[in-house]
């Protein structure tokens, strides 16, 4: 399981700076221009991430439930040819 996935909980992100793959921001009380700039950068990055996530399609919980049930009951069939075609298409968009 990955950070709560599969346990009915959303994935956990430790800190906003970690989510944005940035170093942790300096405390606001330092008063330095560099700290203020870094805090602004983190805010801008988090706003961008929030917009991108909002634009992505929501999770189809009914489909996830159906797939989980099929896997658990042994009824989920894997199609290696279809998987291979998807990998090739992803690596080479011209072949899609």
Task: Please provide a written account of the structure.
The two termini are 32 Å apart. Helices cover 54% and strands 0% of the residues. The protein has 96 residues and is mainly α. The longest helix has 23 residues. The chain has 4 helices and no strands.
Biggest β-sheet description: none
Number of beta-strand segments: 0
**Tertiary shape:** elongated
Mean pLDDT: 74
Order of helices and strands: HHHH
> Which radius of gyration do the C-alpha atoms yield?
20 Å
Low-confidence stretches: none
Number of helices: 4
What's the quaternary structure here? single chain
- State the end-to-end CA separation: 32 Å
Determine the fraction of residues in helical runs and give it as a percent range.
40-55%
Instruction: State which percent range the strand residues make up.
Output: under 5%
Structural class by SSE content: mainly alpha
List keywords for this structure.
96 residues, mainly alpha, 54% helix, elongated
């Amino acid at each position: 399981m990955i950070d709560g996935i599969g346990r009915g909980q959303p994935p956990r992100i430790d800190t906003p700076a970690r989510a944005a793959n940035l170093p942790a921001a300096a405390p606001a009380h330092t008063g330095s221009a560099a700290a203020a700039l870094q805090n602004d950068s983190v805010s801008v990055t988090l706003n961008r991430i929030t917009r991108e996530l909002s634009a992505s399609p929501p999770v189809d919980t009914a489909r996830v439930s159906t797939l989980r049930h099929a896997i658990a009951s042994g009824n989920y069939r894997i199609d290696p040819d279809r998987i291979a075609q998807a990998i090739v298409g992803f690596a080479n968009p011209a072949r899609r």
